[in-house]
Design brief:
By secondary structure, the protein is α+β, with helices and mostly antiparallel strands. 42% of the residues lie in helices and 23% in strands.
Length: 115
């Protein structure tokens, strides 16, 4: 649910998520400026607002910090991307190990790239 609260004369919009799995209140500010508050099912509205007011300084500072990155693209990787670059990474690692192994002469059985 989209909500709005006034913190230090700034209107801050946030998404309220009510979770039956949550044990504690969680505040999350993402790189795109989205602010999410996740709460357990039995938390009252006034407790949420009290916490947000208490954490005003932190919330405002993080929102300001992420404003610096607005307009920049962040790439989310997927399994498809992982598989695409896995072989390239393996080749690079094998080359680097061969280079450093000239000096250190280490023994190894297998090299694996894992996600």
């Amino acid at each position: 649910m989209k909500r709005e609260i006034e913190l230090n004369k700034n209107k801050v919009e946030y998404t309220l998520k009510i979770s039956n799995r949550a044990k504690k209140i969680r505040l999350a500010i993402h790189h795109d400026g989205n602010f999410t508050v996740t709460v357990p099912e039995n938390i009252k509205e006034n407790i949420i607002e009290t916490l947000l007011i208490k954490k005003t300084k932190w919330i405002i500072s993080k929102l300001e910090y992420f404003k610096k990155f607005s307009g920049k693209t962040f790439i989310k990787s997927s399994k498809k991307d992982y598989l695409k670059y896995k072989n390239q990474a393996l080749i690079l690692v094998q080359e680097r190990i061969a280079y450093f192994n000239k000096s250190y002469d280490l023994q190894f059985n297998q090299i694996s790239i894992r996600n």
